[in-house]
Design brief:
Structural class: mainly alpha
Number of domains: 1
Order of helices and strands: HH
Radius of gyration: 15 Å
Mean pLDDT: 86
Largest sheet: none
Shape: elongated
Low-confidence stretches: none
Number of helices: 2
Length: 69
C-alpha cells in the first residue's frame, strides 16, 4: 500500500507541474496572455503549482523512505 501511495503522490506531482507550471509558461511564450495583470496572475499560479508539486514529490519520497527503514 505504501508503494501505491508513493506512486500516487508522484503522479499528482508530475500532473501538477505539467498543467500548472509548464502550461502557463507556454501560454506566455506564444503570446496568449494579453495584459500585465494576466502575466502576474498566471505567474503566481505557476509558482503555487510548482511549490505544490515539490511538496507532493517529497510526500512520496517520505512514503518510500518508510519502506526502506
Amino acid at each position: 500500500m505504501k508503494k501505491l501511495k508513493a506512486g500516487w503522490f508522484n503522479s499528482v506531482s508530475v500532473g501538477l507541474i505539467s498543467v500548472g507550471a509548464v502550461g502557463p509558461m507556454v501560454a506566455r511564450l506564444i503570446g496568449a496572455l494579453s495584459s500585465a495583470t494576466d502575466v502576474s496572475v498566471v505567474s503566481l499560479i505557476a509558482l503555487v503549482c510548482l511549490i505544490g508539486s515539490i511538496l507532493f514529490h517529497l510526500a512520496g519520497r517520505a512514503e518510500i523512505r518508510e519502506l526502506e527503514d
